[in-house]
Design brief:
Layout: E1 2-6, E2 13-17, E3 22-26, H1 41-57, H2 74-84, E4 92-93, H3 94-100, H4 105-113, E5 126-127, H5 140-152
Parallel strand pairs: 4-5
Antiparallel strand pairs: 1-2, 2-3
């Protein structure tokens, strides 16, 4: 997997890509990531990813349009795809997400914990039963920042 790190308003992001899809966005280094070869399909994809992340952080983008290569169990994939469906600027409770996936909140929490593509697969939009911020791989301050960022921008258009 190719890897690159970029600065962001929520700290350094580590981006992992295959030659054709986004595989990871993490808040910690990607082990065994290799540099992106100049002029490669991965370089073109990394430029699109960085451009879209920049647009998201500047409030100009509410929906990402990138090929994703999610790798997980069938259940994890179902939960992660449910996360992608949560609209920008909105939240959902773990219990409701569990109901939609025919499971318990604890199972959903475990699947979310292993989400490999932060921000684009918006696990930050899942909150506790009382609306409180709970669990986020990047830490609660990052989760709070992302949610407040999305609340600040009135959604009036797509990309």
């Amino acid at each position: 997997m190719y890897a690159i790190e970029i600065p962001s308003p929520v700290g350094t992001l580590y981006l992992g890509l295959t030659g054709s899809a986004v595989r990871e966005i993490r808040f910690s280094p990607i082990p065994n990531g290799i540099p992106i070869p100049s002029g490669s399909p991965a370089q073109a994809l990394s430029e699109r990813l960085i451009e879209q992340l920049d647009a998201y952080f500047s409030g100009r983008l509410v929906a990402f349009d990138l090929p994703l290569d999610l790798v997980g169990t069938e259940y994890q994939m179902r939960v992660w795809n449910s996360l992608i469906e949560i609209p920008y600027g909105q939240t959902i409770r773990y219990a409701e997400l569990a109901r939609r996936n025919g499971s318990g909140a604890r199972a959903v929490g475990q699947a979310i914990h292993y989400n490999p593509i932060s921000i684009i697969v918006p696990c930050h939009r899942v909150v506790g039963s009382d609306g409180a911020l709970t669990g986020y791989a990047g830490g609660l301050p990052r989760k709070q920042w992302l949610l407040e960022h999305e609340q600040r921008r009135p959604v009036s258009h797509g990309h």
